[in-house]
Amino acid sequence: MLERLSELECISRLGTGCVGRVGFIVDGKPEVLPVNYACDATGLVVFRTVSGTLLSLVDGQFVVFEVDGIDETAQAGWSVCVHGGAQEVFLATASTAQKLADRGLISWAPGPRDRWFSITPLVITGRRISFTGDVTKFEGWFEGIVS
Amino acid sequence: MSTDDVEGTLEELDHDECVRLLAAFSVGRIAVATASDSSPFVVPVNYVLDGDVVVFRSAPGAKLAGIDRHAVSFQIDYIDGFHHSGWSVLVRGTAAVAEPHEIAHLDLESWTSGPKHYWVRVIPHSITGRRVRAIDLPWDERGYL
């Protein structure tokens, strides 16, 4: 069974995570990289990286930020995508990012993650799927989640 | 850098370990560039691994329907929020709609329920992975139990 999530529900689920994935395009090819993140009640996402990484190229790009919770055994779960513009954030001038920092955006990776980026949501979508039948039929996410 | 950062370690995973992790999982995320000036499309999909080729199912009319011969990325990860650690594997490659003979040995059709589905193979160009591990944290003096 596939169910669309309301924007409110999406933002609520976004708030429960600590790692999400930034999808963006480099040289016409999609990249998907996991990041620690924090978000606020509007779905604005903030994450950190360092110079020289692929992620530091996202400034000014239209990107997608994805979080999900998947139960492989039950073939059930949910997925939320925030599509929006990524912008580098300079803390001295960004009170929102500062608030998120105060709320504890912690980077697990070593080294100074001193480049901050925000993703301002334009479109937030989410799906929840629960598979109630025979799990050996290998159904669940496939075309249901993408159509 | 905020004061509550815990310095962990970041290590690259070699190809064999990445493939081993891919083989052990069954759900990942496929990313497709829909337009060069737009955000990619990222969705979770079930998959099986055939050697180092990720195979997943799609259907006509789905957003992944135009995926054939497109550059794609396929990503899996495991996150341990308590220990601030985890790993991720990224397959960069090209999507190819599978010919029946290419997937016949996987015995996939017995798992499907409808005739309209088709299978997509991700022909890998590169398979990379990273693991983030927190350093050993000091014992919590307050004790457990």
Helix proportion of chain B: under 10%
Domain count of chain B, please report it. Answer: 1
Query: If you consult CATH, what is the topology of chain B?
Result: Pnp Oxidase, Chain A
Mean pLDDT of chain B: 82
Q: Using DSSP, what is the number of strands of chain B? A: 8
Radius of gyration of chain A, Cα only, in angstroms?
16 Å
Order of helices and strands of chain A: EHEEEEEHEH
Q: Please indicate the count of domains of chain A.
A: 1
What characteristic shape of chain B results from the CA principal axes?
Answer: elongated
Strand order of the largest sheet of chain A: 2-3-4-7-6-5
> Which superfamily, in CATH terms, is the homologous superfamily of chain A?
Electron Transport, Fmn-binding Protein, Chain A
Strand content of chain A: 35-45%
What's the total helix number of chain A?
3
What's the structural blueprint in terms of helices and strands?
The complex is a heterodimer of chains A (about 150) and B (about 140).
Chain A: E1 2-4, H1 7-14, E2 19-26, E3 29-39, E4 45-49, E5 62-71, E6 76-89, H2 95-102, E7 115-129, H3 142-146
Antiparallel strand pairs in A: 1-7, 2-3, 2-5, 3-4, 4-7, 5-6, 6-7
Chain B: E1 8-13, H1 15-24, E2 27-32, E3 41-46, E4 48-50, E5 53-58, E6 71-80, E7 85-97, H2 100-103, E8 118-134
Antiparallel strand pairs in B: 1-8, 2-3, 2-6, 4-5, 5-8, 6-7, 7-8
Structure notes:
The complex is a heterodimer of chains A (147) and B (145). By secondary structure, chain A is mainly beta. Chain A has a single domain, classed as Electron Transport, Fmn-binding Protein, Chain A (Pnp Oxidase, Chain A, Roll), CATH 2.30.110. Chain A is built from 3 helices and 7 strands. Chain A has helices spanning 7-14, 95-102, 142-146, and strands at 2-4, 19-26, 29-39, 45-49, 62-71, 76-89, 115-129. Chain A has a 6-stranded antiparallel barrel with strand order 2-3-4-7-6-5. Chain A is globular and about 45 Å long. The two termini of chain A are 13 Å apart. Chain B has 145 residues and is mainly beta. Chain B has a single domain (9-134), classed as Pnp Oxidase, Chain A, CATH 2.30.110. Chain B contains 2 helices and 8 strands; from the N terminus they run E-H-E-E-E-E-E-E-H-E. In chain B, strands 1, 2, 3, 4, 5, 6, 7 and 8 form an 8-stranded antiparallel β-sheet that branches. The longest helix of chain B has 10 residues, at 15-24. The radius of gyration of chain B is 19 Å and the shape is elongated.
